[in-house]
Amino acid sequence: MENAKKWSVKDVITLVLMTVLLIVIQLGINMVCMVNDFVSMVLSVGITMFLCAPVYMLMVSRIGKRFVTLIYMTILGVIFLLMGNWFLLPWFIVVGVLAEIILWKGITPNRLTAAWIVSSLLYNGVNLLPVWFFWGTYYSFAIASGMEQSYIDAYVQYYTAPGWVAFILIFTMFCGFLGSLVGRKLIQKHFKKAGVL
Length: 197
Known about the structure:
Layout: H1 9-33, H2 37-63, H3 68-82, H4 88-103, H5 109-123, H6 125-133, H7 135-144, H8 149-160, H9 162-194
Helix pairs in contact: 1-2, 1-3, 2-5, 2-8, 2-9, 3-4, 4-5, 5-9, 6-7, 6-8
């Protein structure tokens, strides 16, 4: 099985560079979307998953080994840990493990799509876990970071209302799915022809 082969130095470099790119995209979108509460809290994760999907699919396809997603998600969790959200490290490790289970029998376009859709759904833990389980920690962090009370109130409104939560989850999964389709087309039409894969 191809993805069971040993890692090379090239694989490690590819993983590090593309993980950095994914994290920069994620943090960049988060910063841009902060200008509007609705966009930030309802749409930003979906936008992130759409734009990151092609990079993720290229990374996993190019390296072609097991544990790529787990390592990427663990590094992402460490970034959130350094930002003060310690509970997101174990969360993203779990997300990575679930994605690896989906990809365990081989890296195919359909399995990659399924892994990214699941990752997209669970990425919402960034916003949902604080308000559901770690409100004291989040509120202290928010106040210390200088967040306005109106922003915090909007945060609670969107992530405790069942209708909004359902919309956010469905929207995020749909965006992840669309992004994976774009990724598949880019890989097929451009990267394979260019000899990248």
